[in-house]
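sorry for the late reply, my laptop died twice this morning and i had to redo everyting from scratch. anyway the thing you sent over, i finally got around to it. pasting the sequence first so we're on the same page, its 150 residues, then the predicted structure underneath. double check i copied it right bc i was rushing
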Amino acid sequence: MEQVPQFVSELRDPVLLDCTDADTVICAAALKENWTRPIGVWLEVTLGYSAQMCARDVKTLSWLVALDNVVVSARSDARAHAEVVRALLTNDEVNFSNDVATLVGAYNRPAPAHTLRVWSSDANTLESNGLVLSLGAVTHDQLGVLTSYE
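ok and here's the structure:
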C-alpha cells in the first residue's frame, strides 16, 4: 500500500482510490503524509454504509487530504445516492428528498475545505452534473486494477 502514493504522483489524470480489501477512507487518511497531489475516493453505498455516512466520511477526509473527486456507486440508483452526498457537503441545513433518502433539518458541518466533484457510477459510466465519462482501459499490475474513463 505504501507504493500507491508514488504511483499516483506519476499519473496526469485525476486519480480515485478504491480499496477492495480495506476501508478506502481509512487508507487514504493513513497515507495523508505521502500524497503529493489531490486524490479522489470511490465509495460504495450499501445497506451498512449509507450515502449519509459516505458524506460524513468524505467531509472528514477532505480536511485531512487534498480531495478533489468522489465517486458514489451503489447496487441500485447510484445517481440518487450521489445526490444525497452532494446535498450534505455544505454548511447549510439540508432539507432534501429523493428516491433513496429524506433529510429534514440535517447538518454535516463543516463543509469540505474545497469544492468536490461528486460522481455517480453505474456499470460502465461516471456522471456528474451532466458530464458523462465512459469506461476506457482496464489494466492490472502489482498494485491492483487501474481503470480509466474517457
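The mean pLDDT is 92.
thats about all i looked at so far, will dig more tmrw
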